[in-house]
Specification:
Two copies of one chain form a homodimer. By secondary structure, the first copy, chain A, is α+β, with helices and mostly antiparallel strands. The first copy, chain A, is built from 17 helices and 18 strands.
């Protein structure tokens, strides 16, 4: 298709979709901009139009129209992804699922629920609270559950409760030909056929558009204890984490916050923490069990020269702590006005964590770069936030080189380029470096499911298909 | 291909493979028989030859030869699957992986390991014991870990530790064109690309031949308490299970054993249990935590008219209990000489468990059939073992009808036809009933990965392809 042909066919697709949605299809520049650019360094690209859908059947019809005109279709939840997942490098229709925000059912007896894709995690948890239940996956942002499934999100609780990979029971998706499938039952486990649920989770809108998600739920623990524990070094934080995990301490959250972040938190979130590398922790269980866990951890910390471990069981104090952690990106960004942020997201086997972090810190120092670190260290996952002045070509070059070496370092340690953010558009270059010959099989799946490559082209394994 | 052409090409494939393996390729009738028939009702079909491989490269070469001659290739581990997974309805080469039994590495600090596909779970656990580690997935049989991955096995510990879906970190597989891929890193989580690991887990040798598996490990708990708790009815057992799960009791095993099985266990395994529906339980944790869990469960049981809950923390007593549970199939079979066993394996949301079991019992009684029940009830998964005299056409008919109604009942409750045994050849008829339009996407994956359908044809989603 030539550029002109593409433009004409997109115009026709937009006209047909307008006849379906009326003023729920927007071509306003401001709306298109918001739906075409995330909050990071990744370049934006606005879609040709944004469709505010309300039902799965509307998604079906839009995808069918887009299939007819070979127009790209890009799913959009809350726009909180960090790898340009929802940008439209080839134009097309952005399907905004935020109005599909119905909580379809909560089966408290089975500890599961079913929601539309646009329901956010905070909305779901507010709904569940009175029933004594919660959904644990917490990437920080109040993301939509459809988007979290599509990007295989995780976050602070994953060390205990798993990621979206473990917590999506089944899902409903509109496939490239407009057909709707549901990928599984409400059974906790099944050996019936290929695991399409896990295939769709993390496929970033390139294999189908997720419109409903079945999720596992958990009972709110009888006791929740959260606290902070300062350490003399990042390495000591990592070593304490390694010991806790290796001895099987069922920690619910264990987050590394480096001294730079502590300084930023104190300023941005009005905390009063000692400026030194610190672990933020949380324990879930019975009263007896959380006390036992906290005491065990305090012992580990002391042995490594850390502590004191101070903890709070009052909900407002816990909330304040985790809100600061969630605002980490904004807190450090506020210290670096005018700079843009490169988000990084490597994850390594935990025995290599301290080494990976300290080598990365040396590389930052050698290149005179500011790169504060936070991490879901219980999983071996950490984020160096690389701040960069786009107008300084030498700094851009150094940032990109440090970024590449960070990923190479993680891969050499048998880790991954991305623990939770995804490939999107931003990490395409690293997919083959990480997976080698296996990428051909990802692309074979993509071709089999979406031969015209209309679903989120240019992202994840969809990149190499002709478009 | 005509039958004659197929026979000629298979003969050529066998000759080429013999030149590779020498006497490690067997065409002996007895060897072929063993590799073509499982221990259940499912019909057998011997392969043309059995290749005893020792290295991944040999599997590659064999698959390449079979690709050239369009000869079926069927992976074989320990032959303990229950749905005819390894039979050879179209002939071909059985690849016996039992000699690939090397434990490649144990990373105790990361709680993971890497093994060749032929390593069995007992072999691995014997190797790990001195390091204070264990691999939790326990399907009863001493199955190979490659086979367990291929069938998405689970068993008694899944309620706490998950199934092979959650416990395979990554795997190495030989694909239909002879290429080797590795599906992931040792990172605990990753959002890099499509989840090929989960796609291969449960694919039953139809998408590739698994030759190595990376597995999660766990520390052996400080305290393990196991016990038995009698109840007045199967329904009371189910209700106690439901309460325990709903309140978040982190039970490690919770197994329903009906009165028929207790009778069989007492005879076969020399136990002395009260002949009534019983739960077998196990708790893992610290000394304080297992005691707390056991006491909490005893309270639940008492409320429901069950108990007393008697427990043992001595390893030999626990082993005796679980060995009896694992021998359930043989114990009941010994009571029914001359009859064959239909294994069933439905799994339903736990709130429907009591209802599903009791309706099934009524159906058995109405049809004058003997169908003792055991189940991994914490997951909503239970097995009715349907004994059947193949020479009695009326009984065969009644068994098949009860079997079909059992699956329909589970599906109507938003459950699955198979919690852990798999589709294999035996449950092909139920795959579409369970997954509807989604089956087409499974077949699309199969066609994309194995266009000539040489990998385990006639099983799982591979059935409808021309062969």
């Amino acid at each position: 298709m030539t550029t002109l042909e593409r433009r004409n066919s997109t115009t026709q697709a937009v006209a047909e979709i307008r006849s379906l949605l009326g003023d729920r299809l927007s071509v306003a520049a401001a709306v298109r901009e918001v739906h075409g650019k995330d909050q990071t360094w990744n370049p934006g690209a606005p879609p040709d139009a944004v469709a505010f859908v309300e039902r799965t059947e509307e998604v079906q019809k839009i995808v069918a129209v887009c299939g007819k005109y070979e127009t790209p279709v890009i799913a959009y939840g809350t726009g909180t992804s960090l790898e340009g997942h929802f940008t439209a490098p080839f134009g097309g229709i952005s399907i905004d699922l935020s109005r599909m925000d119905r909580i379809i059912e909560v089966n408290s007896g089975d500890l599961d629920c079913r929601v539309e894709a646009g329901v956010t995690r905070k909305q779901l948890n507010a709904h569940l609270r009175d029933q004594g239940l919660f959904f644990p996956v917490d990437p920080g942002a109040d993301a939509s559950l459809g988007g979290m499934a599509a990007t295989r999100a995780s976050g602070t609780n994953a060390v205990r409760y798993g990621t979206m990979r473990e917590n999506v029971l089944n899902l409903t998706a509109v496939m490239a030909n407009g057909e709707v499938i549901r990928t599984g039952s409400r059974a906790r486990k099944s050996s019936a056929g290929y695991d399409l649920t896990r295939l769709m989770v993390g496929s970033e809108g390139t294999l189908g558009i997720i419109t409903e998600v079945g999720l596992r739920l958990f009972g709110i623990p009888e006791s929740i204890v959260a606290g902070v524990c300062p350490f003399p070094s990042v390495e000591a934080c990592c070593n304490a984490t390694i010991q806790a995990i290796q001895m099987g301490l069922p920690v619910a959250r264990i987050e590394l916050v480096d001294a730079e972040h502590i300084r930023a938190f104190n300023a941005y979130s009005k905390l009063d923490l000692k400026v030194t590398p610190t672990l933020f922790l949380e324990f879930h269980g019975s009263e007896a069990s959380t006390r036992e866990q906290a005491e065990t951890f305090a012992g580990i910390a002391e042995e490594l020269g850390g502590g004191p471990f101070t903890w709070a069981s009052k909900e407002e104090d816990r909330q304040r702590l985790w809100q600061a952690r969630h605002d980490a990106f904004w807190a450090t960004k506020s210290l670096m006005p005018g700079k843009e942020a490169f988000a990084t997201d490597v994850c390594v086997p935990i025995s290599r964590l301290a080494e990976c972090v300290s080598e990365t810190q040396k590389d930052l120092a050698a290149n005179n770069l500011y790169g504060p670190i936070v991490g879901h260290v219980g999983d071996g996952n950490f984020h160096v936030v690389l701040f960069c002045d786009r107008g300084d070509p030498d700094e851009v070059k150094r940032v990109k080189e440090v970024y590449g070496r960070l990923i190479d370092r993680a891969l050499a340690m048998d880790g991954t380029s991305t623990g939770e953010h995804g490939i999107g558009a931003g990490k395409i270059a690293y997919l083959e470096r990480e997976h080698g010959a296996a990428v051909a099989y990802m692309r074979a799946v993509k071709r089999a499911f979406d031969p015209r490559n209309i679903l989120n082209p240019g992202k994840n394994a969809a990149i190499s298909l002709t478009q």
